[in-house]
Amino acid sequence: MIELGHYSLVFAWAMSLFAIAALWFSRRRPNTLRQCGYRAVTASFLLIGAASLALLVLLITRDFRVEYVAAYTSRDLPLLYVLTAFWGGQSGSLLLWTLLLALFAVVTMLQSRNRYEDYLPYVAVVIVTVQHFFLSVMLFAANPFEILEKVPLDGRGLNPLLQNFFMVIHPPFLYLGYVAFTVPFAFAIAALALRKRDGEWTKLSRRWTLLSWSFLTAGILLGAYWAYIELGWGGYWAWDPVENASLMPWLIATAYLHSVKVEQREGMFRRWNYALIIVTFELCIFGTFLTRSGIVSSVHAFADSNMGPLFLTFMGTSTLLCLVLLISRLEETRAEKPMVSLVSRESAFLLVNLLFLALTAAVMWGTMYPAFAQAANGEKLSVSAPFFNRTTWPLALAVLLLLALGPWLKWRKFEFSALARTLAAPVFAALVTALILVVAGMRKPIALAFFATSALVIVSLLIDIGRSARYEATASEISIFSGLFRQFWTRKRHYGALLAHLGVAVAFIGILGSSSFSQEHDVELKKGIKVPFGGRAAEMVEFSQHRDVNKDVVYAKINLYEGDSFIGQVQPEKHFHFKFEQPQTEIAIASTLTRDLYVVLLGWEDDGRVTVRVNVNPMIAFLWIGGLMIMAGSVYVLFPGAPKAVKAPVAEAQAQKQVEEATV
Amino acid sequence: MITYLLMPLFFIALILYVSWPVLNEDEQAAQEPKPAVKKKKR
Lengths: 664, 42
Fold this sequence. Notes:
The complex is a heterodimer of chains A (664) and B (42). Chain A is α+β, with helices and mostly antiparallel strands. Helices cover 63% and strands 11% of the residues of chain A. Chain B is an all-alpha fold. Chain B contains two helices and no strands. The interface between A and B is medium-sized, with 18 and 14 residues.
């Protein structure tokens, strides 16, 4: 199996090189060489698949001759986590990256062969070049089939922190997002190379863009949830460099998702869109690089490796080539129409783009500053949460504000009276929200601003939904609920986006609620004694220490009370794994919609006294609900459109026009 | 042991699969209908 894995990789490396050459030399006219090139793309996928299968078999059979298997599995590791070990380490995760990319190359080829034959050779060359780079990294810097000189009796095992269901699915989702962005990037490069002037590439790659964005969003959310329930510090986002590395491409991709709409509708922002998708792709590679280079210290970063120069060379060369290509196509990428109104829908899109860009720049600066400082004067620094909060909160607030205003602005012109009429109710709702919160004792201006703006967004979007349902109902003479359902079913893109935007506002309520009003209590407990803290109380009913197969376990069973009423029993634990020095905290959460009680076992004494930390995190459930709404919205947009028969009603077109007039 | 046997076969099969369009090129060309050539009238 080791030989199969290793030689499959070597062969895939050669095969993808052949595919690149064959497709490049046959790019102008279809011939047998092009057919061979396409077949080589499929063959390299099969070879990478064989290598992945080999690694999987080696992991399952615990073949400790292989360094990777010995480093990330052990004999007592459950099967689910043995599978997780595939991407638990550096070279395995690179293999997963390459496998996904090879799969996407084949899917793109199958999808496109008879539809856009002129694009396909270029698209395939770009994807396979990226794939070839990753194969080179594996073969020359991080081979998952490296053999140990001395075979150990047992492996080291997977880090206990990674032994969690959400850690099983978080990395594949993140990788799917990172990798899938290569496809729209490849379409952009193909369009530039072919000197296309029509912006068709944005339509051809639309589903890929949405799919990548959805995967990346899901990956980030799953990672945040894992951090919340596993790391035990009470939060979900620590502004860790590797977290930031996944946030940056997400921010730029979100900007691209919005600005591409302007190109498709008005033929504007062409160069801008090319630049955004190129930057998204480079940031995806940068994210992968940051995780593996060891240039920034992070809880995620794999140890120092010699991959840095390879990644830097690839990123530098590809950025330079893209830049040269983009500059040489300035004439072809000229906008169809100029921007004529400063306050219009397209200018709102532009502003949102700039805000996302500024957010990315702030995150990038905070992430990379320690590395620059160390390179410049050897100082070891770290940029912590306050910097990121100070720089990103105002920008995020502006994005949220535009979320409420944008949908009501007209394309290419500004009409104040219509805007004022529509926004009167949402502004009123925002003011009332702020007033209620002030009366309730809230004094933090940034929190007040966010809550009020979230109310503004939610009411504004609900008005949009209500209006379109009413117009549909009137035009088709059906009930308002049927109207809503029909609108929801026939205008998938609009309602998917609406749901996602509502999710953003709801998520911000969760983010602000939990970060602004969280409380922390260190409580010392003794069995059978009810100890009050912050209007609540805790009572320890059991404390135990015992030895498990591979670890010592300490736990406390605690009853929690709100006032006098019992709200639940929690069991925070501490694990001391024999193979890992760091003790592991298993937190316990008593959760409701309005707050989480997050309990961590801190310490214990011989006389039976136990200290726990209780974090009260208000409204954090809104973050997860908002995240689910964002995901549901993006998945809904990805669904195939409604069948024509449903769209048929005669009045539909008329109602649609009315809706557009009223809402756009 | 079986891996050692199957591995080269797998690789050879892939090489054949990739090069098939080239290997088959002459046959394909032979099967394609030739353009009709008008005979010159004498």
